[in-house]
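Reviewers asked in the last cycle whether our approach scales beyond single polypeptides. To address this, we selected a multi-component target totalling 871 residues and predicted its structure end to end. The input consisted of the following lines:
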Amino acid sequence: MNVNPESRAGIVGWGAYVPKYRLRMEEIVRLWGFPEGTPKGLNVIEKSVDNLDEDALTMGYEAAKNAIKRAGIDPKEIQAVFFGTESKPYAVKPSATVIAQALGITPDTMASDLEFACRAGSEGIKSGIGLVVSGMVNYALAIGSDTAQANPGDVLEFTASSGAVAYIIGPSEASTAVFEASYTYVTDTPDFWRRANSPYPLHGEGFTGEPAYFAHIIGAVKGLLDKTGLTINDFDYAVFHQPNGRFPIKVGEKLGFPREKILPGLVTPYIGNTYNASALLGLAKLLDTVEPGVRILVAPFGSGAGSDAYSILVTDKVEEVRERAPPLSYYIDNKEYVDYAIYAKNRRIIMKIR
Amino acid sequence: MVYIRAIGLSKVERAYGKGLQEKFYEAVVPIMETTGLSEVDTVIVSNSFASLLQSQNLLASLLVEDLSLLNVTTLTVENGGAGGLTALHLARSLIKSGESRNVLVVGVEKTTDYNSEYYNAALSQLTNAEFEAIYGANIISQFAIIARAYLERHSVSEELFAEWPVFMHENSLNAKHSQLRFKITVDKVLASDYVSSPLRVLHSPPFGDGAAALLLSGERGEDSLARIEMTAVLNDTMELSLRGDLATLPSVKRLVERLQKKTFPPNQADYIDVLDKYSIAGPLMLETMGIADPGRILYEIKEGKFRPGDKPVINHTGGAKARGHPVGATGVYQVAEAVAAMHGLQGVRGLDYVEKAWILGIGGPGTVAAGAIVKRV
Amino acid sequence: MESLSISRFWRYRRAHYRLTGKKCLRCERVFYPPKRSCPYCGSMDLEDYDPPERGEIIAWTKLYETGTPYTPYRPIYLALVKLGDMTALLQLTDVTDEKKQLRKGAPVELVFRRIKEDGSHGLIYYGIKARPAQPIETQE
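The resulting structure, written as structure tokens, was:
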């Protein structure tokens, strides 16, 4: 089984961050004239909203700080920082360097921002695995963070939310969870995009489903199963990209996963789709709670389109480090509701001259 | 000895039609009309924000051009709200050393040339720019934090704290040049909005422009109005985070000790004027001077003490709150007003029993303290 | 864009990003912002001090009279915060319940936020703020 190079790397520490504010779906329904049942169809109750002084970078920092605490390592031992986002504060100027500097990782490190819609954070993990396994770095920090944009009034606005997650990738011996294997499936499928100077993305509605989300996740998962010889029954939990609360359950059903293996890692109904943090926050939620020894299937997805499927084995170490940082539930539970006006202000969609 | 030969007080106002030049000139006119300026060999101008708000440096040299003064030593002083008294301290030192004989000290400030947001940014320059102002702090927030510490320490209610601005507005009627010449009530103070809790609009000095002037001389003449017994300027930390006790002003404490060592204690003064920035600095400074026990001065003010006829009379012209606080000019106003009160000059209600005055100012949140002790001659 | 200075912020990024103060090796007191001599005993024998991530409020205010460029954030909360042996003036963020969260002794935790922006085209300055802390057991 341990023939895959990935198996020599694992998750040494994980960290989550979700901003404090929440917008109820009814606010969007009321403002933009949607049918009342729309949020229910998406299986989303409310979504997280960043404060005016937050962005993908600041949230990524918080998640990374928590991951480092769990890893219990000197930040200087991190030699690669990957920041996956599609809501960069700067179009040009890396966010990874700011985070690396603020966390005391600089200067002896790689650092870059990655973009692949919602999948860049996962690509960061996979790159980190490669660097660790090759021996080029001791530890790599992969962050997925977004203050997701949505055109006001677009159905996307129900789910586009804010949150961050971070993983310290290191040697499997020191890991709380080990990567058994991974499989990536990528094609040119234009289901969702944002042009260079456009403030909001556009998407293909139904086209984001079958040819994009479902085809790629299923492609990646099947590839992983073929490669490893594992079957659906070998996994205790499955976490898929969570653009809404419905798709992950549906893709699980298509693959043959019962709901009870998917629901424990589902976070979108409570905070919305945090894009690059989406599936990876689901994994963090599991690492916060599951028993050692369980096997987790994780499959993030990014539009454009691609998916990575990982088989992850949780080790005994998970319980040692869990308490070193706040769990995802701490951030999900400590919430304060805002109305659409505050949301609009915080999201900077009220036009001001400055 | 250093004597005050003449004074000039201009109206503290929103002088949209007047620039630094016009306000400066206005303050000097009464001096030109009495003693004249022919013997002036040194001009010191106190100003805080011209560099930012009027894009002007080298202020003293520029402004004396309106006075046809040539071949004089010109010097511009910036020491926040303590600038005026600092200018006086320098003038006295120059005269005592023999370097200068007749010094014209003018404080001038124009705060109304931009909108309030911009002026608030200017007020942030009285805090540490890199480590306090960067978080949005300004002089208002710093005094608000000090006020909260004082109110909590001494269990002073907001109602009692409102007695200070009420007292100041009552006093504003004693001087024609005061900016806000009307009475207010405790209820009105408490009904006003917070600017930075627990400070409200009616605890705050109004935005205003002003200029005041003093002519100092090393020799006593026929026209001498008062004698400067002592001046001093002392520092403290700028950052509140470096102070042990927020409910005190250590710079003022040390300044009072220094001043009284060479002269007389504050409780022997007939007249006291303190720079009551955001109201809270008034009680703090007076209690530091020993005029009342810590936490007690507002009770005494409420009881009706310190009014004309009392010794000491306090902030006779309305203080920063009601006379106004044109930052770099205020210290010069404070001294000129004390002299005006001694002699009943220039629209200030005369107090013929006033012989000895204590005048204290501060720059920033007590970052620097400056004081002068003036005796009538 | 106001063309705020780049270097003024950049040169102090250690302090802004990590709130690194100084500890006096003679009198052992800790202070912020960093200086080259101890404000308490005058010693110049100092070392860097990184404060803990949790602390408590000493005194606070809610400032409405903000200056440019803080007006979009109005009102802003400012507080003197005790962090271990160090005291710092910080902006408070994520305040949602003034009565409960803003009082002497109330717990706060440090967060990394935008502290200043140079319009919508200039630089974004990041740094440390404090926010009301939730009671949790998993703090280091």
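The first strand of chain B starts at residue 2 and ends at 9. We regard this as preliminary and will revisit it once experimental data from Aim 1 are available.
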